[in-house]
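Section 3.1: Structural characterization of target chains.
Under the original work plan, the team committed to producing a structural model for every single-chain target entering the pipeline before any wet-lab resources were allocated. The record below documents one such target. The sequence was received from the expression subgroup and is listed exactly as submitted; it comprises 123 residues.
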Amino acid sequence: QVQLVESGGGLVQAGGSLRLSCAASGRAFSIYVMGWFRQAPGKEREFVAAINRSGGTTYYADSVKGRFTISRDNAKNTVYLQMHSLKPEDTAVYYCAAQRWLAPTVENQYDYWGQGTQVTVSS
């Protein structure tokens, strides 16, 4: 069992930056592939970014490539999402998730989810 707690969300102007954190507790953090997803009002949840167990491979949705960076610190049991050049369309609840498999972009392969953190980008 893994518990995930996101933090770092907030209100930012377009063009600004935020860094989200996701702290994990429970079983060994390094065995999990970690991902970030987001859900905007009235829309389905969508994949944002993911990172493999070692942190050596990352995956991004086309909409955030070049603006967002996912990273992890296995010693601190934490995964991060650094977001730059934020746009109003990035407004959503951002969720951290963990999986034991090898399908980093597939939502239904994630076993554990955090409660989400709100990111609001004003124009």
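The mean pLDDT is 96.
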